[in-house]
What we know:
Blueprint: E1 3-7, E2 10-14, E3 21-25, E4 35-36, E5 40-45, H1 54-59, H2 65-74, E6 84-85, E7 107-108, E8 111-115, H3 118-123, H4 129-143, H5 159-165, E9 168-169, E10 196-201, E11 208-213, E12 224-225, E13 244-252, E14 255-260, H6 268-274, E15 279-282, H7 294-300, E16 305-309, E17 318-321, E18 326-330, E19 340-346, E20 349-357, E21 363-372, E22 381-386, E23 389-390, E24 395-396, H8 408-411, H9 414-426, E25 429-431, H10 438-441, E26 443-444, E27 451-461, E28 467-475, E29 479-490, H11 491-496
Parallel strand pairs: 1-5, 8-14
Antiparallel strand pairs: 2-3, 3-4, 6-7, 8-9, 10-11, 11-12, 12-13, 13-14, 15-29, 16-18, 17-20, 18-19, 19-29, 20-28, 21-27, 21-29, 22-23, 22-24, 22-28, 25-27
Helix pairs in contact: 2-5, 4-5
Amino acid sequence: MKKTILSLLIACMATAGHAQDHMHISSLWYGYNGIPISEIDSITYGELSHQDKLPALIASDPNLSLFNEALLLTHMDDSLVAYINYDWYIEPGKPTWWGRNPVLTLSYYKFTAFVEPNEVYARYGIHTIDDLKAYAAKVYDEVYPEDAAITDPTDRRNSLNRFVSYHFIDRYATTANLVALNTEVYRNYDREAVDIASWYETLMPHSILRCSAPLLTEGEEQLYINRRGIQNRADERGVFVKGARITHSASTKNGVYHYIDDIIAYDKATQDVALNQQIILTTTTLTPELMNGEPQKEAFDGNTISYKITPEMEMEDIRFSGLEEIWYSYAPGFWSLDNDELVIEHRGGEVAISFDIPAVPAGEYEVCMGSMITSKREDDRIHFTFNGEACGDSLLITQPMDLGWKSDAELGSEQAIAENDSLLYTLRWRKGLSYYYSDDGKYRMRDLQYAIRYVVTRFTSDGKSGNRLDVTMHSNSGFQFGIDFIELCPTEIYEKK
């Protein structure tokens, strides 16, 4: 009996050494040999039904009835039904870096929800949609008084709309990859010094949330939203915020939801206290495409990968020019933070790459870009522009030791270490992160001369505007350059130290 194929992207080709043609379906899985054309009766193109998408999954859970009512009232459910990003399709078979995995051929729109069950609302006296409207108004009318009179729940400035949309991010994040692409990465962190965390922009305009995995005494991993502290104690500035704990999860084709045990909102306390921390945007969390398709799955499985990204693949938050491609790389045990980075192979001349960065709570921040410097380059320079303003002179891309970098062990005393840090800072460099160990926990990033942070600039956030970082690189001879992460840190943290 012949087969009827429901698919989205197909490619027919003659398979070498075989007498008949095969149909190959674009897929996340490799080693797939295709379906003989003789076995196919018809081909139908189609999308997932709405029943296979996140809004239907939420609606099917009676414990989420109140949140679902708000979701429907705001029409935010309409924003959660996208699935395939057709702009990312590229003919398979192009050459790849190191001869490994193929170029990216497909990207997905996927979503993650953090939702309060009815019983959580009940603890706050919230039993009806009117109660929830009143709660949302109390929170967001304080933060956005200029929008307090907007009563249309479908308006993105409405308080209920803001409340609902803050509960979603535009990527697929399970409990296993919410704070790292692979739980094997956990062992690279000094968890006595820091809780592993990832930061995400939400569907509420100009907002951000923090997901963290503190090492607690219960023995199993616990995941929290908007928590501050280290394990079960206050952080080095004496502040502890419990946050909302993830207690249960369910998933479907284009998304996943997580129960949380407390209400989350982008209120003043959350912005001013809970999120007043060092913000690290890793390579993978900078843009949703890298979490929603092939790279996410391969990295989650712990495979070494390298995917080519070309200019016609329009990423939501990353753009580049002067290059034929960039590479997204994930390698277990690699020196970079969380083992992932963007690799730029440059054949000479000028190239540029820009990043859209989420809005962060109001305050003054220092912006750094983490990078791995693996070879000395005499004539290569890098220049930064932040929010349209040039950030001083261009900087030399060179070995840190050429600028006076010395390891803490070599320096010995706290005074000598502080003086060396100060010297590097005058040159707009910082050492690597002190709480992360590369090469499966063998080497502290701060002790690696290759792991550095370029000091980009300081800026004052109004809390209501997104940000953009433009990176321009110039080389006469060409080079390979890795971008590891972007850091936004409240200046009071560094000034206190």
